[in-house]
Fold this protein.
Amino acid sequence: MRSAKKLIAQVRKQTAKNDVAHDFGHIMRVYKNAQKIAKKEKANMKLVLAAALLHDIVSYPKSDSRSTTSSILSAKEAAKILQGYGYSADEIKIVTEAIRDHSFSRGITPQTLEGKILQDADRLDSMGAMGIARTFSVGGAEKRIFYSNKDPFCKFRLPDDTKWTLDHFYKKLLLLEKKMNTKTAKEEARLRIRIMNEFLREFRREI
């Protein structure tokens, strides 16, 4: 328990400069999601929670060319950190592989149950009310326009979320339910998809 509190404190300190969508609040929501999933899926709780705490220990903004390497660099940093907390080589391998492969941009399904749970827990925080908040936070930070005036809901074009924030729903967020690995995450994802669809219906009415 004491070592867990110490690790949490270290993560809080090291992620203080992360952007708001990948800050300590995000990390603790992923931690909470992972804890719930791991309990139901009977995974190794110690390793799942370590992976959740360290999955964004290195995080570059989306506009940074290094952003696609964040998960790889986080895995390397996590290995260094966990050695100081008495984790075995086998445990560190499981945790770091989970962190390395959790990223949506890598397009990889993790091999271990712990890795699958981390990926699900992270993706759930991209959905629902929190996902909406994070999406528009990133869009604002990147100075993107809310939506395309010609085709706001991507009916006649491919989504481009580098230009329009609303496009991110169609390029990624609404696709996540089908990409969940565990039964527990799939059930929660359905609820969060419903919230996002309700938001889009209201958005359509207001514009």
